[in-house]
Amino acid sequence: MLNETSEGKAVRLSRSSLTRFLKGPFIWFTLIMILKSSLAWIVIFDDIPLWKPLLTELPMIWACFCLIEWFAAKRRMWLYLGLNLLLSGIFFAAIMYYKYYGVIVNYHALAQVNQVTSVKSSMFSLLDPYYLFIFTDIVIIGGLLIRRRMKFGKPEHPAEKLVERKTRRRTASVVLVMSLVIGMLNIYPNRASMSEITQAEQMGILGYEAFTILADRPDQPVPINQITQDRIEELKQTTDLPAINLSGAAKGRNVIMLQLESFQNFLIGLQVNGQEVTPHLNQLVRDSMYFPNFYQQVGQGNTSDAEFVVNTSFYIPPNGAAATVYADKALPSLPKLMSAHGYQTATFHTNDVRFWNRDQLYQALGFDNYYDINYFGTNDTIAFSASDDVLYDKTLDQLEAMQSAGSPYYAHIISMSAHHPYHLPDSKISLELPARYQDTLPGDYLISQHYADQAVGEFINELKERGLWDNSLLVVYGDHLGLPIYSLDPEDEVLMEEIYGRAYTSVDMINIPLIVNAPGITPAMQLEQLGGQVDILPTIAGLTGVSLQDQLHFGQDLLREGGNLLPERYYLPSGSVLNDTSLFVPATGYGDGMHYSLANMGRHDAPRWNIPGEEEFHLQTDEASTTLSGSSSSSELSSASSAGYVTKDQYDRALQLMHLSNSYLIQLPEHHAAQ
């Protein structure tokens, strides 16, 4: 009878302990994390059923909670709160990173969080206030814990305490096993998916983060002695273009390469209520060789990645910024190439050279000199550095000095004033916008680019006044997109539809201009061949008569070679690729990817286009949406069977090109050892 009474008491204690477990922090924090994960999913993913975050996120959340229940005898609430903060931080980072880059953050990107402090205004501009609710509970619960107002059924007797721990561990063990099984079923079948967005959607955001850490094994590199220019050309399968006989035509000329911050191609020729947004660049386009079908190829490093790609003709790394991943390598580069042909080389950037590891990057690229904030100062600051006016004015002084040295020079100039979030001081604003554009992201963008264009116009005038124009080759291009699709509010999307006359697409987003002008040499013409930033180096080499025979490169001379293939790695899922007629964006792979036609994407085929003023604006939102969505579905999206779309062979070759590029670069000696 005594044993039965003891057993009955043990059962009652076990049931009581299980009840306390179900009413304790495990359940409360589960409900909290469901709300937070749902918020992240609403921001990042489209048309997701309500059950999907539960199925994908809860297993990882419960697995973490079970470890607390198993091992924590004391301070469980503090451990739950700390884990809550960690997981909330991951969801918040995923939201903000997606809003800026359009991809899912991973630990490689989080390792560069120190760079965010320099672009905090960009981050804050993407922050909708309701995102901060993700941290509200932490403040409240933390405050209650500090004041010792929150208690969760603390046992009074040692026997009860022992039974409770055993019950918690048994329950946690069952839940942990169940969570790990479901988590593996979410992760394992989707590990080979090309699209990071698709992976995160199928694995869950937390599952994706765990997968990127545990499965981070880089592909086996191709031996460096097997990476040759012939192999690259075989994969690219370029074709000969009709002859534009300019090979070596700019030999011995100064090379001035101007990289424009966040400059997209739709700005060329755009008018607002009869006022040109970029009048000086419009005039330069009319006098130059203009490539409207030109695309960015940057990654996490944005501007610094553009500097890397155009100066090396290699692709960005699979993870991280090129200036961080490759900056210790002895890089083949345009500065080294030009130096070998008697050129002086210098780069001009108004920010701190240590930002994005540029001090190391510039050494690896082989620039003779760099000029940063220490030279340009902090007067007349826009964004986080001296204005474009200061940049061009002080750069001109150095160009004159190099000119007087008697040998040609290569100067790479990085503009910065039109940096996201496009907030100019009132004294710099001269573009008048219709009221509907005021205080919007597209409106602020147009205002900033109008100022940037004015500064470029002054720079070109000064080049002519100081006698630096006639003996130069000027190359102008955008570094990366300025208006990410995923950063636009619904009101912004309507404005972009108004600008384009149709839906704003991924193709438009990554489309940047390339303008090449060698006064007296280059004809004024529009060249339709497909190009990317990786093609700038060989195009400059061709014009200046510099041989690339002994320099590996992945780009092509846009004046001599067609049939381009442009791999993309960021802002779009890995494996995205452009050919001459379309953009392909994979999902799990090639079979379920999307094809976006390049036909009629840009506005370069129109003579000029104009945004009407308020009194002329009669577009009805409902009618416009119907028309635009119909246009988008018929001209943009189609199956891979359509003629001219990216083929499976082209997709595979693009992946091989990226792998060859990374394989070659990671096997190069360190630049200090090579000197």
TrEMBL record:
<feature type="domain" description="Sulfatase N-terminal">
    <location>
        <begin position="253"/>
        <end position="546"/>
    </location>
</feature>
<keyword id="KW-0808">Transferase</keyword>
<comment type="pathway">
    <text>Cell wall biogenesis; lipoteichoic acid biosynthesis.</text>
</comment>
<dbReference type="GO" id="GO:0005886">
    <property type="term" value="C:plasma membrane"/>
</dbReference>
<feature type="transmembrane region" description="Helical">
    <location>
        <begin position="130"/>
        <end position="146"/>
    </location>
</feature>
<feature type="region of interest" description="Disordered">
    <location>
        <begin position="623"/>
        <end position="642"/>
    </location>
</feature>
<dbReference type="GO" id="GO:0016740">
    <property type="term" value="F:transferase activity"/>
</dbReference>
<feature type="transmembrane region" description="Helical">
    <location>
        <begin position="171"/>
        <end position="188"/>
    </location>
</feature>
<feature type="transmembrane region" description="Helical">
    <location>
        <begin position="78"/>
        <end position="98"/>
    </location>
</feature>
<keyword id="KW-0472">Membrane</keyword>
<dbReference type="InterPro" id="IPR000917">
    <property type="entry name" value="Sulfatase_N"/>
</dbReference>
<dbReference type="InterPro" id="IPR050448">
    <property type="entry name" value="OpgB/LTA_synthase_biosynth"/>
</dbReference>
<keyword id="KW-0812">Transmembrane</keyword>
<dbReference type="Pfam" id="PF00884">
    <property type="entry name" value="Sulfatase"/>
</dbReference>
<feature type="transmembrane region" description="Helical">
    <location>
        <begin position="50"/>
        <end position="71"/>
    </location>
</feature>
<dbReference type="InterPro" id="IPR017850">
    <property type="entry name" value="Alkaline_phosphatase_core_sf"/>
</dbReference>
<feature type="transmembrane region" description="Helical">
    <location>
        <begin position="21"/>
        <end position="44"/>
    </location>
</feature>
<keyword id="KW-1133">Transmembrane helix</keyword>
<protein>
    <submittedName>
        <fullName>Phosphoglycerol transferase MdoB-like AlkP superfamily enzyme</fullName>
    </submittedName>
</protein>
<keyword id="KW-1003">Cell membrane</keyword>
